[in-house]
Amino acid sequence: MNAQSQRSIRAMPAKGKGHAFAQPLTTVDVVIFTVLAGELQVLLVQRPQDEREAFPGRWALPGGYVDVNKDANLLACARRKLKEKTGITSPYLEQLGSWGSRERDPRGWSATHVYFALVPAANLKPAKGANAADVSWVNVDNAVGQRGLAFDHSEILDAAVERLRGKVEYTSLPAYLLPEPFTLPQLQRIYEVILGRPVDKSGFRTRALAAEFLEEAGTTEGDSNRVAAAYRLRDRDRVVVFPRTFSPRG
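Now predict its structure.
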């Protein structure tokens, strides 16, 4: 290392003592999906009406700033925000991607790291939090393609729905939207809700059981108020990939 390089290193700010350049605003947003009333829905929060706020009164995805004193990493921040908004502590969370630019937030250069979550509707407790005027579940089909969300959240939501519907074709993801235990017809219905089309019943049952992501859990009350075989996820930390997509019902 030459003398000039050594002088450059000594001139750099020490860790924790500031930076030689401006820092972007850093947030984590969570696209929270559930199935309510037979529809795929997403949780939106309404921003305060205060004109000093960015996008006052507009609806947005839940999220917030990374708290360096609470969040060990981005996933921890996403879990904290999810807990604050729904009361759920252990859902399925997957990182969707990152969005950043100087135009997305009028308060300054901003970067957000986005996760999507799948949570069962049972026992959900949506909370609007301290910096929200309201909170609501919204039908995904009514929200996708709309340009009215705050920041670039319309673009983010579109990407999350596309990712979810694409992966549902060949993975066990929909099972995370059901409270356990559940029946196979209930699981098939969740697949159909997300895909927006019917799925062949016999083929679904065969392939779901062959994929070995379910284990028997006794019996439970089915959709027709009859006792039916019950199942739960064998491993909640692993999403199973199927060799083929599900066939539509003819």
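Helices lie at 3-11, 74-86, 140-143, 153-168, 184-195, 201-210.
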